[in-house]
Amino acid sequence: MVAKDPRCLNHMFAAEIFMHRFLLSSAVRTLNPKEADWFYAPVYTTCDLTPAGLPLPFKSPRVMRSAIQYISNKWPFWNKTDGADHFFVVPHDFGACFHYQEEKAIERGILPLLQRATLVQTFGQENHVCLKEGSIIIPPFAPPQKMQAHLIPPDTPRSIFVYFRGLFYDTGNDPEGGYYARGARASLWENFKNNPLFDISTEHPATYYEDMQRAVFCLCPLGWAPWSPRLVEAVVFGCIPVIIADDIVLPFADAIPWEEIGVFIEEKDVPKLDTILTSMPIEDILRKQRLLANPSMKQAMLFPQPAQARDAFHQILNGLARKLPHPEGVYLPPGEKHLNWTAGPVGDLKPW
Asked: Which domains does the chain have, with CATH numbers?
């Protein structure tokens, strides 16, 4: 699939590919299934791309079902637990709900065959159908080498107060403008497009990474989903992330003190954003910047090639290790089944 469309190595969903490559050469891998605590199934569900390079989530459920069918027919391990000791990386907008629009994702729900598996996903929102208990939230993929190539001297003054580049309206998918980003991005533009403290635009300049390193605050508003690569970029470039996504569950909360390094703004408070940020004490800003300067903070957000200590790969392994030992109910008596193989939309049941 990667050979057919290598673009899926560079987009924000690429963590599933790099996690696979990391595990192939990792010291935690065993070729003896009796020794294994976990089984990992690489399924490249974000590798089916449109001409514009965006993943098509519509075929993903069929791809995933076909993969599960294959591993359950070929080996005995899935059937012993109905997948409860298996994990999958599902980096779509709404994880294993496999749709980029929230309403439709909620309607679909998590693919029924993944109900017992552990999901490693970028999507995280409290009390949401598409986040089940026990999932591991990860950062989206941002290319480490590319970011490294754009580093500027760390003592460069931060002369931009608030920075954002991206869509405010998605007219193609949301012509009326109230659904995309739950209106938060539209509110940003309408309230602050003429504010001299806000450097915000839809244009993506060649100096994007350098500009983030010159900014004090980087806006990380929700889009179709609550998460975005801006979160990774902000942390890596030492720009205080301003997180505008109600009830977001952030990656690796045990390794990254989000409350201490970021600023959380409720979506309804976007019109007051200038007042909130300008009234923040300078000591608080400097403390957040000092914390962001810690290399371990940046490391946890990246999927480097080759892997390095305390990077995102190792944070995922830590998350899996914390779920061990498996509880008793994981292993099923012979012949017992918990999954309904015919549940879900009829379109998902077609072979891939």
From this structure: 2-141+305-348 (no CATH), 144-301 (3.40.50)
